[in-house]
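Try this one yourself first.
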């Protein structure tokens, strides 16, 4: 099947069959109940769980049965999913609105047998990676650098920040201290700078275009501070990661690490955008991260659809969103190192798939990306878990646990794991209370992802799993997961409003914006 002419999910024979089957899940006495499902099928855990590279996934506590799963797999086949996946991995222009590839998988090694990578591109990627990793090792070995500050926003910040935090907590990082500045609110930068010594700080300015407003404002402020401390060697202490080498050079960066236009920001951790992570891990650790992601790429490329974990998770997302009407998904990593994973996934999923038109510009008659939110366990248990257990809305919960801790406090880790297991079980079994206040309805869905340990390899596999899951659901919804036009309008309006905060001009503004602008000026 031609991937560009493939049908959208709601144009398949499976779609109305899924709609009809979903109605039986919501009809009084015939509604699907997890407790009954486990009682009737002692093998349900085996049927709805599987291993993938470095990850075990238990999907058995979700509101799904064998018939729904079979219909969802039929939906994937009828939607031409396999042809679209192969086009992604081969570097075809699957980003149709911008007419370019989304070839982040190639940054960690071709994952199809032919690869379709011209020798020139393959050599460019290999050379760029070697240059970046050599520089990272040199910074680690340079006693003159005690601190490294990454300045970026969105995909230039969330991925590296989350990964550094995760692997620092897992004891996998070393070298200079790593800091991250993203917010356009200067309070973040103003809080950090007094804690640094200019002579011993390296700044990494990461912006694909080298034109991102928040990044450039923070970079200029950091450069002004650096010069104000009596330092002059901007070219030694500022490096750039960008497609726009000329602009980075004009800024004063000494080294510039390039990107390709087929590297999307939220998929860019594997490129030079990962430089701060490479400094934290060293070249060997960064290559281990790539190896873990590459193993998941191979699984995604070759596993049969019924055991292809990224696809199974995507089909579950579609089932919950479009057929069971669940508008959000709560992600709870029971590992402090993964505390920024929900924020990372918010961009990855909602910026990729939060769209109301398909790739052909047609308005979608169904919902797409759910709202993704969450918190590290067990903090969430003392905050929003009340709503998850007893609130009127059913919210799918995703638990992520790590079997082996990176510390020696074994009793505490066992307690943490017990809490994760207990919360998933409580959501499912519930509790009866004739008085009502202590009644837990139960039958609330959850997924459990288990890593043996948190290290560069397993983190790489986990992040690649989420990337492919997002692509898979976007593919079936018929949308382009690789553009983000919804980000642009606010930027355009902000450029118009910023000078008005000085001039006070309100011509052409709506009354609300004009009134707020006047109060802000006053």
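Now uncover the answer:
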């Amino acid at each position: 099947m031609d991937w560009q002419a493939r049908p959208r999910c709601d144009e398949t024979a499976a779609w109305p069959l899924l709609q009809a089957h979903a109605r039986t899940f919501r009809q009084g006495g015939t509604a699907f109940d997890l407790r009954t499902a486990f009682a009737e099928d002692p093998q349900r855990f085996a049927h709805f769980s599987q291993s993938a590279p470095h990850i075990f996934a238990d999907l058995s506590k979700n509101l799904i049965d064998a018939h729904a799963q079979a219909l969802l797999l039929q939906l994937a086949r009828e939607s031409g999913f396999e042809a679209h996946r192969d086009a992604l991995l081969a570097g075809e222009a699957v980003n149709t609105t911008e007419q370019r590839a989304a070839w982040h998988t190639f940054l960690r090694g071709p994952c199809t047998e032919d690869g379709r990578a011209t020798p020139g591109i393959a050599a460019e990627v290999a050379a760029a990676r070697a240059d970046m990793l050599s520089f990272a090792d040199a910074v680690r070995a340079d006693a003159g650098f005690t601190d490294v500050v990454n300045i970026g926003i969105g995909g230039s910040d969330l991925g590296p920040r989350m990964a550094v935090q995760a692997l620092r907590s897992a004891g996998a990082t070393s070298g200079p201290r790593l800091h991250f500045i993203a917010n356009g609110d200067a309070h973040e930068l103003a809080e950090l700078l007094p804690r640094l010594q200019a002579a011993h700080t390296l700044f990494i300015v990461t912006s694909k275009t080298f034109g991102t407003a928040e990044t450039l404002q923070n970079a200029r402020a950091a450069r002004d501070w650096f010069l104000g401390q009596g330092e002059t060697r901007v070219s030694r202490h500022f490096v750039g990661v960008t497609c726009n080498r000329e602009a980075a050079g004009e800024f004063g960066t000494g080294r510039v690490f390039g990107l390709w236009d087929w590297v999307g920001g939220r998929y860019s951790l594997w490129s030079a955008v990962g430089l701060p992570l490479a400094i934290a891990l060293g070249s060997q650790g960064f290559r281990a991260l790539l190896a873990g992601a590459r193993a998941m790429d191979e699984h995604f490329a070759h596993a049969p659809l019924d055991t292809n974990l990224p696809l199974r998770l995507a089909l579950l997302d579609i089932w919950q969103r479009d057929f069971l009407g669940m508008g959000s998904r709560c992600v709870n990593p029971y590992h402090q190192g993964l505390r920024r994973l929900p924020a990372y996934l918010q961009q990855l999923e909602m910026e990729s798939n939060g769209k109301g038109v398909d790739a052909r510009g047609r308005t979608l008659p169904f919902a797409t990306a759910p709202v993704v939110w969450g918190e590290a366990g067990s903090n969430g248990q003392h905050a929003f878990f009340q709503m998850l257990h007893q609130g009127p809305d059913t919210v799918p919960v995703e638990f992520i646990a790590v079997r082996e801790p990176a510390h020696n406090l074994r009793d505490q880790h066992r307690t943490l794991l017990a809490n994760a297991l207990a919360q998933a079980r409580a959501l499912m079994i519930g509790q009866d209370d004739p008085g009502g206040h202590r009644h837990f309805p139960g039958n609330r869905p959850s997924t459990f992802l288990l890593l043996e340990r948190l290290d560069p390899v397993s983190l790489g596999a986990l992040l690649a799993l989420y990337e492919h899951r997002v692509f898979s659901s976007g593919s079936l919804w018929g949308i382009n997961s690789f553009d983000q036009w919804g980000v642009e309008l606010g930027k355009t309006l902000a450029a118009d409003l910023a000078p008005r905060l000085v001039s006070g001009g309100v011509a052409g503004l709506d009354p609300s914006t004009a009134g707020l602008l006047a109060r802000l000026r006053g």
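Discussion: The chain has 19 helices and eleven strands. Residues 237 and 323 are 53 Å apart (CA to CA).
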